[in-house]
Design a protein that fits this description.
By secondary structure, the chain is α/β, with parallel strands linked by helices. It has seven helices and five strands.
Length: 178
Amino acid sequence: MFIEQSIFIIKIAVMVSDTLKQVGRLLVESRLTLAFAESATAGRLSAEFSLIDDAGDFLKGGIACYDACIKENLLKVGHDLIEKFTPESMEVTKAITEGLGRLIPSDIHIGITGLTCPGGSETEEKPVGTMFIYALKGGMHLFSERVNFSGNREKIVSQTIERTAVLMVQHLNLNEQP
């Protein structure tokens, strides 16, 4: 009984959502590549995308930049920018996405920052669950969004992954229309 339950739990944990599968198909059909700079999701977005069929055809890689020093030293985000806007802001999310573009050649670059738990820059206006998503395609703004999720860390990260996939489907479909 225990083994059957464990196998069931593992199967659920590695299921790829229909939205992620759709993103994968769109990327492969469009021959587009993708890379991530992840702060709050700490590599989970890259990991989820790696589970999509044919991920090797579109996923270039990702950088987990949870700590501000990685944002500054590796992705070349200015310390003043982080001090002015906080590490969990759209301005810093844009900057990590641009920094990623200098490190990993890809058609699409996506950056994620946010607050999955207390202890960051949360305020009444920016509570835990606030997430920032920023995407560039060919170095140009593709989409950006500030979203507020509820739940524990796992739920906030999972919702962020799904929302990123939804935004990608919306914008990739728009780009395919004449």
